[in-house]
Amino acid sequence: MAQHRHRTAAVTGTVLALAAALLAAIPAGAAPPPDTAPLDLTKSTAQWIDHSTVAVPEDGDPAATATLVADPEGELAVRDGELTGTGRKSVLRKIPGGLSAAQRARFPHLSAYAAYEVAPKDRAHTAEDLTGQVVLTRQQPDGTLTTATGVQTHGVLDDLYASRATRATLGPVFREGGVTLSVWAPTARSVALELDGDRVPMRRDDASGVWSATGPERWTGKPYRYAVKVFSPSARAVVTNKVTDPYSLALTADSTRSLAVDLDAKTLAPKGWRNLKKPKAVPLRNAQIQELHIRDFSATDRTAKARHRGTYLAFTDARSKGTRHLRKLAAAGTSYVHLLPAFDIATVPERKADQKTPGCDLTAYPADSEKQQECVAAVAADDAYNWGYDPFHYTVPEGSYATDPEGTRRTREFRAMVKALNDDGLRVVMDVVYNHTAASGQDPKSVLDKIVPGYYHRLLADGAVATSTCCANTAPENAMMGKLVVDSLVTWARQYKVDGFRFDLMGHHPKANILAVRKALDALTPAKDGVDGKRIILYGEGWNFGEIADDARFVQATQKNMAGTGIATFSDRARDAVRGGGPFDDDPGVQGFASGLYTDPNSSKANGTPAEQKARLLHYQDLIKVGLTGNLADYTFTDSAGRRVKGSEVDYNGAPAGYAAAPGDALAYADAHDNETLFDALAFKLPTTATPADRARMQVLAMATATLSQGPALSQAGTDRLRSKSLDRNSYDSGDWFNALHWDCRDGNGFGRGLPPAADNKPKWPYAKPLLTSVRVGCAEIEAASAAYRDLLRIRASEPAFGRRTAADVQRTVSFPLSGPEETPGVITLRAGGSDGGDGIVVIFNATPQTRQQRIGALAGTAYTLHPIQAKGADSTVKSASYEKGSGIFTVPGRTVAVYSRSAP
């Protein structure tokens, strides 16, 4: 199967504008009209929303008679304008006024649909009808067939089964020496268990739609799958699917069979697991997070054990350079490691023998050559690399990261990784991707859709699976998909002691689903479950786009909607202001605060005139100020125009810059796995005259805007070491060559490893080619940047001024005293601490090349000194920063962030 492309996380600017334009063409609360011919059973434009109601796009013909036709053999077809085949018919009555208020609230996108009632006498066989093909027809009084379409059934399935099914325990359950395997398959005509060569019939519970089979203890550890006989709308036939368990807890290599495994078994626990002592929990508002890909961490680390490279066990190599660096970060104040997806991935061969490697000497080509990317792309579909945003089985560790993918070694080794990171002082966050699956329908990598076709995925008006996330969108608004999300996360928390979860495209989940996750995790206790669920942190991408945008189908888990929940969303506001422009700009040279806009201009005409640059820079500074407060909506300050504004009144591409209700609602970052690394973005944007030292200093300054903000901050692993992916904007499938972390500075930082892969980067090659041969940094810059960043982490971790609990605390203790019409372009001055607006800490971000003076008259006579950590720290340049007590003038070198603390008088 072709590799799936992970949709870039930065859904801003142009992409949002396009999405808005598309949505504007659709009436509020209504679904787009189905694009289908009236007689077309390949489409499903009717929706059976509950046991008594079918919703159908209005055709304006009051004389037509609507009928549901159900055929258990799935042989209904349209030929020569007639419906052929046999099936039970249920005549429907049109309901005057359409859907009820309650139904419109449940299905707002169907508000404009006509409503038809299923006669009470026909409701008795609804469950049976749903086990076959269901078609809706409309006929004229003369018998002319005007509509024949398939029927979406997720609504009625929830109505019939959800109340009981959501309370069922699915997957393998071990009790009293026996094993029970259960799967929800309400539309299946039959389900059999194929276990270790035997075929065992399963019993259906009619109230829940759950099929189960119970066997002896010898079933433990045995491979199994289900044989599900079911009507498949994509195949338009009754099929028997041989399929793994959606609730699998273990798998054979390449996920061909599930394994009946008891995760409580002592044999699956590494040494010290049951008495694992966690590092002290850090509240989300104070979390400093390193985002890390498991394979990137060690794939090319020569100091890791050879058999551990690219695997979970590399984290147990205490003497490797990568592990040593993580311990340095932990000692400085990093509290969490965020692992990119580590569940079972559909797009990586799990056996090393099946993994291909580039068939050329990648080191032999010039820094600006096309050959490296060509060689990497030739094997990308079958190499060992992928970011992992291609879910196959949600609750099993990925096999390619294990030293042996067969059996349960991946379980033990994942746990060993968690323990090793915890022992190093770091809690563990898992990146989870419940918003889509790698495949749907009858695809070999499809699981959910082979068991309950048309249920687990979100369907568009014509019945097609929505793919706005890049792949087959799931539908966590449907009860059993929502349950799967909750159950899976509880398993990761209880059985793998994961300390936090980051939701990919969280805005595609209902807010209610994410809150249900929070509630379920909060119920976990050390005494009962071995973990304190209330300490588990949650955050995600709250982007608003696609078929569910603007709460079209439910209240989404988006940035604005999650404010006040204690669940954070990534904030793109300050990120774009710091870097400049957006990731999809035609010209990547658009500058921002930390890349020289106005104060150190490059040659790009996209930046506009000096006056335009200055105006944009000052607005960027306002966006960064809002970010430094934790993106608080109600925080008031003086903007660069001299107006008193709230954070919500500062514009960000037509949306409010401030949306958070409390510190911890918004997560700050300057870069992440999506889009160019920070170093690569700055390579495109800084003037070509920038020295290696300049680049390193601007990197640290950009990172500081996130590190020293209120609320949590995330940094991509290696960014403190000037990590590059050779200008690759979307390295999800670019192999180790472009992605690997280089812990030894003598190996470089990853820049100049050839032109980035053509698929996502070729339009930028003309900009990239001259840079790849001219931009250079060495050990001096790499080590200096990393050390300076760790100093900032120490300050962040040790100063309460940066970790305020409430919006009121921030308003009272954080201020920007030099904001207004006279503020210095390229310089932001922050006061924090104390109860009167902040006199404990002063931070000056000087993004200009020149030394700048900032006079805070109100502080004249108050003693300040450079913060002791910087005064004794690694950055010699910042040590020249000074303060005049008599005048209140702070003097800061160019390209420097200086932190001052109040000293004894």
Automatic annotation (TrEMBL):
Residues 170-248 form the Glycoside hydrolase family 13 N-terminal domain. Keywords: Signal. InterPro entries: GH, Glyco_hydro_13_N, Glyco_hydro_b, Ig-like_fold, Ig_E-set, Pullul_strch, Pullul_strch_C, Pullulanase_N2. This is Pullulanase-type alpha-1,6-glucosidase. CDD domains: AmyAc_Pullulanase_LD-like (cd11341), E_set_Pullulanase (cd02860). Residues 747-901 form the Alpha-1,6-glucosidases pullulanase-type C-terminal domain. Residues 1-30 form the signal peptide. It comes from Streptomyces huasconensis. The gene is pulA.
